[in-house]
Every structure is written in structure tokens, then in C-alpha cells.
Amino acid sequence: MKISYYGHSFFKIKGKDHTILIDPFITGNPSASCSVDDFAPDAVLVTHGHGDHLGDAIPISKKTGSLIIAPYELAMYCQNQGANVHPMHIGGTFDFEFGRVKLTIAHHGSMTPDGKYAGNPCGFLLTIDNKTIYHAGDTGLFYDMKLIGEINKINIAMLPIGGNFTMDRFDAVRAVKFLNPGYVIPMHFDTFDLIKTDVQAFVKDINRETDSEPLYIEFNTSIDI
Ligand code: NI
Ligand code: MN
């Protein structure tokens, strides 16, 4: 599969037959050099209602018919705006045509850009083409990551490292020890001044302190894995 990173928490995962977006923050994302018209995914996974995660999910869904998968309250908000949705909630799993999605807890808030209640935020376990990807969403470190790592064989973990609103790079190293993924991709850093961090130091710490392999994907580039 090909994983493209557009900065912040926005990824495109292109599998054999399907394309999935996670947290498509395009408009207003200083890191992303792409436009809404570049995407026609099968599904858009949205971790929470904050503008830097809900992003352009609704316009993409309305334009292409792609399915927004989100926690129930946020999914209903998107549906009311004319999007095609599949609501889920924390702990729930569903087998879609493209693969399996499970919602995990995330310790954070959730509110839409226009101030509407958006339920609880979440993380995602996405299994596609026999690979399991854990996208933590926006969250602080939590000990249940150990359980997530025990129950699931995680091939790739996407973790926030920017601090202030989420885990910083030091807590993210601890998260990697709990999750024990094959690869770890840092996210949610350097988009704004408040979340600036030293990603190269994170990469070094992962190499030195964990059994996982760091995969630093530069903004607007892709890796094949
Ligand atoms: Ni947030
Ligand atoms: Mn955020």
C-alpha cells in the first residue's frame, strides 16, 4: 500500500483496490499542498469535530459520495450537512468492503468548527490489505494503549507528537512501548507554532528505546509499504 502524508493528522492510504483518507485537513492547513479536487476516496475517517481534523471531509463526501466514518454525534452532524455517513462508536467494529474499522478511545475534546457538540473523539484501527494501522487521533497518553497493543498486531501506528493539545514526543515514545507497532509515523507537529517539536529527536528516541521502526514521512510525500 501507499501512504501519503499531507501534514497534521491527514493521511491518504491507498490499498490494492481502495483509497481511505483520515482527518483530511486541506483548507487552512499550511503544510498541505493539495486541494479538495485531488481526492475521490472510498471512505473518510474522521477522529473528531475540531476543524483541523474534520477538515474538508464534508465537501469531499458531497462531491464524490465517499463515506464519512466517524463517532455517532459527529457523523449525524456531517449527515445534516448533506454528507454520506456511517456512524460508529468507541469499541465498535464494522467490516466494510475496503476493510475493518474499529474505534478506540482518545482523551481529547470534540466540537465542530461552528460550535456544535460532536460527542467523544476517537482513534481508529483500520485493517486493510492484511495490515492494521492505528491512527490515535488527538489524544494524551493513556495506559489502555497497552491493551490496544496486546489485542491487536499493529503494523503501523500514527501518533501525535506535537504536545500542547496532545501527547508530546516523549509521551509518544512511551505510547510506542505500549503499542509495540512494526512502524511508527509521527503526526500532529510543526503545523502551527504551538505544536512545533523536534521530529528528528523523536526518530532517534524510537530507534534507541523501542523495538519499532520510525517512519518519518515528510509533508506532501508518500511511502510504499
Ligand atoms: Ni483536536
Ligand atoms: Mn488537532
Fold blueprint:
Elements: E1 2-5, E2 11-14, E3 19-22, E4 43-45, H1 51-54, H2 57-64, E5 67-71, H3 72-80, E6 84-88, E7 93-95, E8 100-105, E9 122-128, E10 131-135, H4 145-151, E11 156-160, H5 169-179, E12 183-187, H6 199-209, E13 213-214, E14 221-224
Compute the number of structural domains: 1
CATH homologous superfamily placement: Ribonuclease Z/Hydroxyacylglutathione hydrolase-like
Could you estimate the helical fraction of the residues in percent?
10-25%
**CATH fold label:** Metallo-beta-lactamase, Chain A
For the largest beta-sheet, the strand count, sense and barrel status come to: 7 strands, mixed
What's the architecture in CATH terms? 4-Layer Sandwich
Category from helices, strands and their pairing:
alpha/beta
Features:
28% strand; 225 residues; seven-stranded mixed beta sheet; binds nickel (II) ion; Metallo-beta-lactamase, Chain A; 14 strands
Could you explain how this protein is built, in words?
- There is one protein chain.
- The protein is built from 6 helices and 14 strands.
- Helix 4 runs parallel beside helix 5 and helix 5 packs parallel to helix 6.
- The protein has one domain: Metallo-beta-lactamase, Chain A (4-Layer Sandwich), CATH 3.60.15.10.
- The protein has helices spanning 51-54, 57-64, 72-80, 145-151, 169-179, 199-209; strands at 2-5, 11-14, 19-22, 43-45, 67-71, 84-88, 93-95, 100-105, 122-128, 131-135, 156-160, 183-187, 213-214, 221-224.
- The termini are close together.
- The chain is globular and about 50 Å long.
- The chain has a 7-stranded mixed sheet, covered by helices on one side. Strands 7-8-9-10-11-12-13 form a 7-stranded mixed sheet.
- Bound molecules: nickel (II) ion and manganese (II) ion.
- Nickel (II) ion binds next to loops.
